[in-house]
Specification:
heterodimer; A: 240 residues; 4-stranded parallel beta sheet; two-stranded antiparallel ribbon; B: 820 residues; alpha/beta; OB fold (Dihydrolipoamide Acetyltransferase, E2P); 7-stranded mixed beta sheet; 27 helices; ComA-like_MBL (chain B); ComEC_N (chain B); transmembrane (chain B); DNA internalization-related competence protein ComEC/Rec2 (chain B); DUF4131 (chain B)
Chain lengths: 240, 820
């Protein structure tokens, strides 16, 4: 009996599993990638819908501009959009993607990003992502933002290019407050060779990252890109 | 310093093949299809298979990729090899002095299938092992070749005698053997091809049941048990159900299609419901579902229930005649139940592939059968398409969306195949399927199964479920017979080309992809794909513009006349509709589907040409062999205008026909003598006979046949009906006739027509004789043929050449016939 089961598994394919929780999906043969996450997980991820901040994509009761954005004076990043609220579950998912190396999660999240961008009707020329310092990259073996960006770009048929490099290694952001972050990050990004070559004027660029907390990282990236000649820089993140 | 850019993100899938069985099956199918286009000998294909398999295997071993392509192309070549091998061995072992003429022979063989009695005709499949051909000295031994025999039955006693034969009985039969006919009319049934794919190369006729003698009766075998059981079940249904629906239930539950009344079947075919009459996957599903429900309720474990059903399903398949859809669904259901036993996941797509592969290996000719194609295509479409389609439907309950999506997907997938094989589609089909299929599958069949099971114990027990399902069926039949009479929603179409169908399939895949949101801006793609689909479907009915060609088809309607003229702009003129003289029949003699030329030849031809309405119907005169088949035409197509001779209606047949035409709104004219009348630029016609007042005796109408001269792009065609010498003389007196290119020889080539003077006056280049094979009038008369030959006129005869088609273009005239 065991042998038969073994053979069975070799010749027949088991159904798709939820990319987040691993439970089997009934979704049919031709379900698209967004359907590869089960309904339960999708609910717990809390997709952002309804009113959002026009600038940073934060969920609000009514549409408008949020207080943080109003307070900020120097703003290089034009618009940010996000898929999910930054809840504990979403954070866990991103941690799985980021630290435990569960790269398969990049596919559904990439497609969620693509859906968000499509809904947003963003039009532009290039997609790029927030880079890792080479040292960290060697340590982790991949850059989660890059995985997300590539998956999203593949679905949207927009080219994904590595325009930025990280020139200075910074310690994790999550333990600092706002002003410390800004200070720490200043001057830590630069244009890559490819970026210098590709960035001519009037490029509209979309930057991909996993989380938008205060927007400092993305703002810094936007600054570098705009200095390099980009006309418009927007961003999209998994969580907000 | 672009480290990150060099690294490709991990993409799953890649080289490993996820559904190998599916790929093998599709490759195999492609191979069988390829072999019918480019046929190599099996040796070449096998060599190709070895090379491809070896190269692909080594490549995969070295590089770990390309397994997908290797599998696909290896199985493609394997399919080609198998098809070529099977084709090469599919030949007759019956030695023939001449394949054109019938052969008289004494056959010895076994009954291969239970006999069927249909009115005054019985059919019997015999596995011939020995035959003695008349005129040769020695009998020949044959390695078991099946020959279907058609037996003329003279009395109800003959019917009973034939019915007593069962499988395995050794017979001696004196029969006349002949080769099956290829299609004799465009769009007609190709009996030779159909039987060839069943491995049958000869048909036989037996003139009397006395020519059959029983040599040996073997002891009963398993096959007999099945036959007896089937008979028992059939008679139980007959006992439990009223006569109105008993035949229908026998067809639906036991697969005895021949028990279903023909009128019901015809309506179901027209409305796209015929899949309910053939035992299909649906029936197997309902059967297995009922069994599963009952057994699990009784307290059997799921695994044991699955095991019991796995053993019950083949039994059910054999009992119902083992049609392709049944076998497909039995294989798929058994695999799914095995998954239950093994506690594995079900992979229905691979199960589909396994069924396809297995059935093609068993008999590759199945790939060409409509039932097989429809079953597999629709199942695949449902597996793939119902999810994405139902998710896009707007209703809040997912169940409702699915219920709507199932017929929608099934219709979209079966459309090209239905049009290709049956040339007809009903606009109401989707709507009818939407409620008839659930009613039949969820109520009628389970109730019927219950009635059958209870009725086996005692017919009275089955009364309640039978009563309810009878009531439901009557309701369905009431609607289908009412709706089946409407001509409006029936669309006819010429069979689409292979390229059209491939593109149609590609558009469906495009729709599925955009519905599943697998491309960016799927909203836009959804609209584009749907528009593309509608344009593509409409393209079937929009004529190719700017093509100047007038086509005349002289149909082979046996002994009778029928010709169809299609003008370049799409006007249709039908001249007569053939017809056979009918004799008074007693009730036992009546066949389920009487042979009727209109229904069998004229209407199928019109449908296969995509003709939607008749603009001009010319009834040359009222003889049965000219207007008999028009009843079927008037029933199924609208007729705008009728042109006939000035005789009052003579027979009841003619009266009924004229009543029907008038009621459905046709305008009736008598032939407008003499006016030359332009139908459209380049095409005109002129009626030469008869005048409004000059008609002769009322019971002799041949000489008052409507005669007209059609002119298209300078070519002339003379259509003569049954005009005889007297009429010809009248015309010669009245008109100064020009030379014509094509003459329809009057009165099927009778000696009383087509006089020397007539031929000398109109000097045709070509003559078409519309005449039946071995007719009892001796038409065409040898002297007429001699008269034509003496003048170097090419003669084409529908009895020898099948249908004759004449195509006229500016500066060019071409003739072709169905048979060389």
């Amino acid at each position: 009996m065991f042998l038969v089961s073994e053979l069975w598994d070799k010749w027949f394919r088991s159904p798709e599993e939820c990319r987040v929780c691993g439970s089997p999906l009934g979704g049919g043969v031709f379900a698209g990638e967004p359907h590869r996450v089960c309904n339960g997980c999708l609910e717990r991820l809390e997709p952002i819908c309804g009113g959002i901040c026009r600038r940073c994509g934060r969920p609000m009761r009514t549409a408008g501009v949020c207080r943080d954005c109003l307070r900020r004076s120097r703003r290089e990043l034009d618009v940010n959009r996000a898929c999910f609220r930054y809840t504990s579950f979403t954070r866990d998912c991103i941690h799985f993607l980021k630290y435990r190396g569960q790269e398969t999660l990049a596919r559904p999240f990439g497609s969620f990003l693509a859906a968000a961008v499509e809904e947003w009707k963003w039009r532009g020329d290039l997609v790029t992502y927030v880079p890792l310092h080479p040292e960290k990259y060697r340590e982790r073996g991949f850059n989660q933002a890059e995985l997300l960006a590539r998956e999203m770009g593949r679905r949207l048929w927009i080219p994904v290019r590595s325009l930025l490099i990280r020139v200075r290694s910074t310690s994790p952001q999550s333990r600092r407050n706002r002003s410390e972050r800004i200070r720490e990050l200043q001057g830590s990004f630069a244009l890559s060779d490819l970026g210098k070559r590709l960035l001519r004027t009037n490029r509209r660029i979309l930057v991909v990252d996993d989380v938008y907390t205060t927007g400092t990282t993305l703002n810094e990236c936007a600054k570098v890109l705009k200095d390099g000649g980009a006309s418009r820089v927007d961003s999209v993140t998994v969580a907000r | 310093m672009d480290v990150e850019n060099n690294r490709k993100p991990v993409v799953e899938g890649g080289c490993d093949v996820q559904r190998p069985i599916l790929i093998i099956a599709l490759g195999w199918l492609a191979g069988i299809a390829a072999n019918s286009f480019y046929s190599f000998s099996w040796g070449w294909s096998a060599a190709g298979l070895l090379i491809t398999g070896a190269t692909g295997g080594i490549w995969f071993y070295l590089r770990r990729k390309g397994l997908f392509l290797c599998l696909f192309f290896s199985s493609l070549l394997a399919g080609m090899t198998q098809m070529a091998w099977v084709d090469q061995r599919n030949v007759s072992h019956i030695p023939t002095p001449s394949t054109k003429k019938p052969v008289f022979a004494k056959l010895t063989g076994e009954v291969a299938e239970p006999p069927k009695v249909d009115g005054d005709r019985g059919t019997l499949m015999v596995q011939v092992s020995r035959l003695h051909i008349q005129g040769t000295n020695k009998p020949v031994f044959v390695p078991g070749e099946r020959v279907p025999l058609s037996i003329r039955l003279m009395s109800p006693e003959d019917q009973e005698r034939l019915d007593r034969l069962r499988r395995g009985i050794r017979l001696g039969v004196e029969a006349e053997l002949y080769r099956p006919d290829p299609a004799r009319n465009p769009g007609g049934f190709d009996d030779r091809r159909y039987l060839y794919q069943l491995g049958i190369h000869w048909r036989g006729t037996v003139s009397s049941i006395k020519d059959i003698s029983i040599l040996e009766v073997p002891p009963p075998s398993w096959d007999d048990v099945m036959d007896v059981l089937r008979l028992r079940l059939g008679s139980t249904l007959d006992a439990v159900y009223p006569a109105e629906t008993a035949g229908l239930m026998r067809g639906m539950l036991l697969g005895e299609r021949w028990e279903v009344p023909w009128t019901v079947e015809a309506d179901f075919i027209r409305l796209g419901l015929v899949h309910l009459l053939a035992i299909s996957g649906l029936h197997v599903g309902v059967f297995a579902g009922c069994l599963y429900f009952v057994l699990t309720r009784v307290g059997v474990t799921r695994e044991k229930t699955a095991l019991i059903i796995i053993f019950a399903l083949p039994f059910y398949a054999v009992l119902t005649g083992a049609g392709a859809p049944v076998i497909r669904s039995v294989i798929m259901a058994s695999l799914a139940l095995t998954a239950v036993i093994l506690r594995r996941w079900k992979d229905t797509l691979s199960f589909w592939g396994a069924a396809l592969w297995g059935m093609l290996c068993w008999n590759p000719y199945q790939a060409f059968q409509p039932g097989f194609q429809l079953s597999f295509v629709v199942t695949l479409a449902l597996l793939v398409g119902v999810g994405p389609v139902s998710r896009c439907l707007p209703f809040s309950m997912p169940g409702v969306n699915q219920l709507l999506a199932v017929p929608l997907v099934a219709q979209a997938a079966s459309f090209p195949l239905l049009v290709y094989h049956f040339h007809e589609i009903s606009l109401l089909s989707w709507f009818l399927n939407l409620w008839v299929v659930p009613a039949v599958s969820l109520l009628v069949i389970p109730l019927g199964l219950a009635a059958l099971g209870l009725g086996l114990i005692h017919p009275a027990l089955g009364w309640l479920p039978a009563g309810i399902s009878h009531f439901l069926l009557k309701g369905i039949l009431f609607v289908t017979s009412a709706v089946g009479k409407w001509k409006g929603p029936q669309l006819h179409s010429a069979p689409p080309s292979l390229g059209w169908m491939v593109a149609y399939g590609a558009i469906l895949v495009y729709i599925a992809v955009s519905l599943a949101k697998r491309v960016p801006r799927s909203g836009v793609h959804r609209w584009i794909s749907l528009i593309l689909l509608s344009v593509w479907i409409l393209g079937l009915w929009i004529p190719f513009p700017g093509r100047k060609e007038l086509q005349i088809t002289f149909l082979d309607v046996g002994q009778g006349d029928s010709a169809v003229i299609e003008t370049p702009s799409g006007q249709v003129i039908l001249i007569d509709g053939g017809g056979s003289l009918s004799f008074g029949e007693e009730s036992w003699e009546r066949r389920r589907k009487p042979r009727e030329v209109g229904e069998d030849v004229v209407v199928p031809f019109l449908k296969a040409r995509g003709i939607q309405r008749i603009d001009w119907l010319v009834m040359t005169h009222g003889d049965a062999d000219h207007i008999g088949g028009l009843k079927a035409v008037a029933e199924q197509l609208p007729v705008s205008r009728v042109i006939r001779n000035p005789h009052p209606t003579r027979t009841s047949l003619e009266r009924e026909l004229m009543d029907r035409l008038r009621r459905s709104g046709s305008t009736v004219f008598t032939a407008p003598l003499g006016i030359r009348w332009t139908l459209e630029p380049g095409v005109s016609w002129q009626f030469l006979h008869p005048g409004p007042l000059q008609h002769g005796r009322l019971d002799q109408t041949n000489n008052d046949s409507v005669v007209f001269l059609l002119t298209a792009y300078g070519y002339r065609v003379m259509m003569t009906g049954d005009i005889e010498e007297k009429g010809e003389k009248t015309m010669l007196r009245h008109w100064d006739l020009p030379a014509v290119d094509v003459l329809k020889v009057a009165h099927h080539g009778s000696a009383t027509s087509t006089s020397e003077g007539w031929l000398d006056a109109i000097r045709p280049r070509m003559a078409v004789v519309s005449v039946g094979r071995n007719n009892r009038f001796g038409h065409p008369a040898p002297e007429v043929i001699r008269r034509l030959r003496d003048r170097d006129i090419t003669v084409l005869r529908t009895d020898r050449n099948g249908a004759v088609t004449v195509r006229m273009q500016p500066g060019k005239i071409a003739v072709e016939s169905m048979l060389p």
